[in-house]
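Marked as duplicate of an earlier ticket. Keeping the data here for the record.
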Amino acid sequence: MNRLGRPEDKGKDGGAKNFITCTTYPDTYNHMVHKPVRPILIMVFTCTQCGQCCIYLGDYIVIEEQTGPYTYACSCVSTNTPFQAVVDEDKRNIFNNRDFSALHPHACPFLRPAGDDRIVCTIHNTSPAQCKIYRCVAVRVYSGDTMVGYITGMGALHSNDSGLRALYESCVSDLPASDEERDSWLSGFFKTHGYRTE
């Protein structure tokens, strides 16, 4: 059976342990992921709950309306799919504090600091499919010592830097197909245009 980083998949330290394989996905994932002919392991990692993967997802996860005290009708802009979000009972207290959202307007509207150096998803149990299969940061992009964006493991750029976004858009059609080659190619491409990558 394929495992997609569901809430029941926990690492030793309690962090979500994500095992993502591409053999056969449940029907709810078919609209998002191509099914390869042979099984492959994409990634195994333990989430540190740093929040970096979701800090720009406010552009993709949109609250359409509040339908109850802690329930929301939402949509995933990137997949044009609606979903119902219910704030996890154990995170409702931190969800009520809207200061983080005000300071980070491009962050996922359900992202909140936990108060212990973690930044957590407050709708983990009802998060959309794209969040459940999301691969963490693959390449960080810096201008000097300041991180100005990052490339996710799925190849998407997250950045507020208009120059970096324009540069990325200019090369999207040239990207190699494999993740490893793509990440290396992007690192080199950004470096030739004055950025630093890690």
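See parent ticket for discussion. Confidence is low (pLDDT under 50) at residues 1-45.
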